[in-house]
Amino acid sequence: MLARRIIPCLDCDLGVPGGRVVKGVEFKQIRYAGIPWELARRYYEDGADEIVFLDITASHERRETMTSVIKKTSESVFVPLAVGGGIKSVKEAREVFNAGADKITVNTSALKRPELITEISDKYGNQAVVLAVDAKRRYNLEDGREIVQTPEGPCWFECSFYGGREFTGVDAISWARRAVSLGAGEILLTSMDRDGTYDGFDIPLTDAVAKSVRIPVIASGGCASPDHMLEVFQRTDASAALAASIFHFGEWNIADVKRYLKERGVNVRV
Amino acid sequence: MIAIVNYGMGNLFSIYNAMNRVGADPKIVRDPDGLKEAEGIVIPGVGAFGSCMDQLSRFEGALLQAFDEGVPMLGICVGMQVLFEESEESPKARGLGWIEGKVVRLPEGVMIPQMGWNSLTIKRPVEMLNGIFDGDMFYFVHSYYGRPKDPSVIAATTEHGVEVTAAVAKDNLFATQFHPEKSGAKGLRILENFVRFTRC
After folding, report:
1. A97, A127, A269 member nearest B117 (Cβ)
2. How far apart are CA B25 and CA B28, in angstroms?
3. Number of domains in chain B
4. B51 touches chain A (CB under 8 A)
5. Is residue B161 within 8 angstroms of chain A, CB to CB?
6. Nearest-10 crossing angle of helices B184-198, B13-21
7. d(C-alpha A259, C-alpha B111), whole Å
8. CATH code of the domain covering residue B114
9. Structural domain boundaries enclosing B37
10. Mind listing the pLDDT tens digit for each residue in A58-79?
11. Best residue in B9, B12, B14 to probe A by mutation, most A CBs within 10 Å?
12. What pLDDT digit, counting tens, does each position of A91-107 carry?
């Protein structure tokens, strides 16, 4: 049986030499966490099942910084690496794969041009394309929306792009389902309502998306403790839980989190 | 020198780095001639069975010669599948056929591709699995798996809807459906076993 995965996420600001890992709250307020490849190596040694790098600067001239970060990381990190942020074409994806990435994640560029998912998956396989969905609850119920019941009332989920700065009007659950048919192999699902809040994962959102698609869903946004991971694994079919701050700022070590989950019956790799 | 066969299918950076890490002297080899001095040969592979075989065919003679001479060989992922005779993925393509049997699709009803960490059941304690125990987890990404005619070549299995061949061993040949280069310390241990094997 496949293990549930624990994935640390490194949001990278590549506007400084060598890059740096930062962490925002609700996609704003930035805090400095460390050097990307050093943090990646520490997490690998602690037992991370995979590592996600997101280029939050994502301008074209910084692509080279990202490829050098991946190259350096893959010399000492031997678990899958996923890389995203501003990848708009197969050519840009190729640069990232050639540097040592196993998967790329796309969000804004795929919402603007959904065929990109197909173009990359045709060349590198479905497993190499992760669709990142940044979803925000909307309580104004409209026709044609996928309505989800939550303790706060029924809502639908709207996709955001440009790192949470703009909204699309696109229904997140329908979009996830469509992305699967276009060739996405995995969904990285971030709750914008929970991101940076330390309130735990958005369980109704994660559950709804995991039930709608037959590919792995990575739950993201709001994780502050191993209990939050336990909750998302017990209450949804999420394949993986992603977190940033709790690992970056020394609150929890990945090995301890995995031991905690295993003791409570979650199938994780320890 | 350990040759990593570069036949144009996929990124060899990870396997190269992992081999370096375990103290091997890896070299990415683009021509069949480059296999002549190899003390060990790695056959990687991603993508479809048929396109892998198309690209690999120019290496077939050199690989067969090395296999016959007893050079240790390691197939990884589709690099394991091409050792079989044929595959449901590409019915018109012919495999290397060093292992009798067929590559078949994972059953309906499970997540395809299988992507993630799954645990091994060891069927045969071969040298390549030194330091690896039942329940150890490895990273898999695949939609098809090899089903050998002779089950005694199976070294380890995993479970994904059905019992899936995870590793085969035959003479100087060892192959894994999972990616040892992406499987953390346990994966590196297998690569280390392989490197040690090339030096015996």
Report:
1. A269
2. 10
3. 1
4. no
5. no
6. 70
7. 26
8. 3.40.50.880
9. 2-198
10. 555 567 788 999 999 999 999 9
11. B14
12. 999 999 989 999 999 99
pLDDT score at A164: 84
User: Cα separation of A155 and A191, whole Å?
Assistant: 13
Asked whether the bond before B180 is cis by omega within 30 degrees of 0, the reply is no
Q: Residue A176 contacts by C-beta under 8 Å, 6 or more apart in sequence?
A: A131, A133, A187, A189, A209, A212, A213
* Cβ-nearest to B11 among A3, A44, A100: A100
Superfamily of domain A5-263: Aldolase class I (3.20.20.70)
Listed in sequence order, the residues at least 6 apart from A260 whose beta carbon sits closer than 8 Å to its beta carbon are A226, A230
Asked if A185 contacts A128 with a C-beta cutoff of 8 angstroms, the reply is yes
Segment B63-112, tens digit of pLDDT: 999 999 999 999 999 999 999 999 999 999 999 999 999 999 999 989 88
Cα–Cα–Cα angle for B43, B44, B46, rounded to 5 degrees:
140
Domain ranges of chain A: 5-263
